[in-house]
């Protein structure tokens, strides 16, 4: 419990009605979770406005309400606090409620279209290899040192974030890394957090169903860097055209990384294989267990962040070779028939291109690439034909299949994808709605030396169809199919 006056000292207040001399028993932004003595923060969401529930809470026992506009009816037993943006206020109130845990950690945020999960996870793993306790907030899973905590979204709400960070601090963690999605930045879910560093990976088309324009998408990413404090570092991919944009208005110390040009942290691929790569980091050669240029960028960012965190360079280089790929990210499975299946989360045109280029660099003309890919329903429809086009250009055979259709018909999603194919692309393409059958067909078509890419779902262990999540794991299906082919 905390005094209301103490909580309110963390936010900018425009007007207050009632007394701040109260004890608060909980802070919530979900009206269904209001209990006696709670502070309710009315946030305007994308589909629901928390202000609409205020009249229903007048006799709920709620002690105080933070809002952007006062209700018509004022209940004298409730304290009303007016702020300019309740989403921003929620972040600071959540931090204060949990005793500002981000100030007791070295918290690193990673943003960008692709590479967030891998980069954030590897920083967490690096911290542990360096001998520190650490935490992670990611798309795949949250970790409090070694304790796995299931995750529902890339970046949780402020109350969940701070509750997890508090558990990390209480568990003795000194470092934490987290993915910062564009949605989270735009919705102020990271408001009130104290970051020690921020990393930008890249920016390509994604989430335009939400942001509408690439410019708005970029602005959401940039806002994370704009808000970094002067004590933090801002590490950006200078090879991406948006890289310098991220640094324009930040107060943080500015650093760059690159595979192509002079930067503070340079990475270079010397030799690439399906099971690893020989890389050079700032003049030092290291064997890593990752494949592809996109992973080389992720690893260079991890190397740079590790150095900026003050960890000894020699030990960092040794540990770079000990890092292992994240589940569902370029995860390879080898068949006795001689082909290799790779499961990857690539679900944007750029990500599909990156993975296929990485495979082609290794396979060359010695084997064929068979790609199995779909597109999610109720998401940016504009990227569907682009994904199919790019996949067809870089594959010898292409199988379009269902991903997470959500509320859409899978056949209609595949039609949207097929629209991006020219005559040559159509000749090499099959459309098989059943994802299991699509994977099985790819395996039947594969010969020794070939590589099957199963893209789009990666670590996910479900298919969402008409609001219901059905168990489906690409990795499990691949293992089943390989076993069947023995």
UniProtKB/TrEMBL annotation:
InterPro entries: Mur-like_cat_sf, Mur_ligase_C, Mur_ligase_C_dom_sf, Mur_ligase_cen, Mur_ligase_N, MurE/MurF_N, UDP-N-AcMur-Glu-dNH2Pim_ligase. Residues 328-458 form the Mur ligase C-terminal domain. Residues 25-96 form the Mur ligase N-terminal catalytic domain. Its main location: cytoplasm. ATP binds at residues 112-118. Its EC number is 6.3.2.13. Carboxylation is probably crucial for Mg(2+) binding and, consequently, for the gamma-phosphate positioning of ATP. Keywords: ATP-binding, Cell cycle, Cell division, Cell shape, Cell wall biogenesis/degradation, Cytoplasm, Ligase, Magnesium, Nucleotide-binding, Peptidoglycan synthesis. GO terms for molecular function: UDP-N-acetylmuramoylalanyl-D-glutamate-2,6-diaminopimelate ligase activity. A motif (Meso-diaminopimelate recognition motif) lies at residues 403-406. The modification N6-carboxylysine is found at residue 221. It catalyses: UDP-N-acetyl-alpha-D-muramoyl-L-alanyl-D-glutamate + meso-2,6-diaminopimelate + ATP = UDP-N-acetyl-alpha-D-muramoyl-L-alanyl-gamma-D-glutamyl-meso-2,6-diaminopimelate + ADP + phosphate + H(+). Pathway: Cell wall biogenesis; peptidoglycan biosynthesis. Belongs to the MurCDEF family. MurE subfamily. Catalyzes the addition of meso-diaminopimelic acid to the nucleotide precursor UDP-N-acetylmuramoyl-L-alanyl-D-glutamate (UMAG) in the biosynthesis of bacterial cell-wall peptidoglycan. This is UDP-N-acetylmuramoyl-L-alanyl-D-glutamate--2,6-diaminopimelate ligase. It comes from Heminiphilus faecis.
